[in-house]
Amino acid sequence: MPPTNADVLQGTLDLLILKALSAESMHGWGVAQRIQQISRDVLHVNQGSLYPALHRLEQRGWIAASWGASDNNRRAKFYRLTATGRKQLQSEVATWRRFSAAIELVLAAG
Fold first, then answer.
1. Residue 95 belongs to what H/E stretch?
2. Which candidate, 92, 27, 18, places its Cα nearest to that of 57?
3. DSSP state of 39
4. What phi and psi, each to the nearest 5 degrees, are found at residue 50?
5. I want to staple 70 with a disulfide (CB 3.0 to 4.6 A). Which of 35, 60, 76, 79 is the partner?
6. Domain containing residue 97: CATH number
7. Mean pLDDT of all residues belonging to the chain
């Protein structure tokens, strides 16, 4: 069974969303699909976690949203990274890299 967003470490969902939106704007379902695609089908983000996270990031000013038409001409809310969000992404990536390097040191210890 592949991991779900429940298996994602606390606080990493924001990082994953910011990274998914770093290349282009997309609607919520597209964000979830992009995370799944980039992770080679390891990470699956359910809508019950995704949409509250998108709303939270929008409230923080890290992403902005506007209404548009999806590929199948349905009305959808599209999200894009703001300048503040790009700075936050850099900060989150640096923090994650320090954290994961520290975990690797612990795992490699004899």
1. helix 83-108
2. 18
3. T
4. -65, -50
5. 76
6. 1.10.10.10
7. 90
- As a whole number of angstroms, the distance between CA 19 and CA 41 comes to 16
- pLDDT of residue 6 exceeding 50, the answer is no
The mean per-residue pLDDT over the stretch 5-30 comes to 84
Task: Give the start-end residues of each E strand in 36-102.
Answer: 63-69, 75-81
Domains: count for the chain? 1
61-108: per-residue pLDDT in tens?
999 999 988 888 889 999 999 999 999 999 999 999 999 999 999 999
Give, rounded to a whole angstrom, the gap between the first and last alpha carbons of the chain: 31
Amino acid at residue number 91: S
Q: Per-residue confidence at 11, pLDDT binned at 50, 70, 90?
A: confident
The domain of 11 spans 5-108
Say which residues have a Cβ less than 8 Å from residue 103's Cβ, sequence separation at least 6.
none
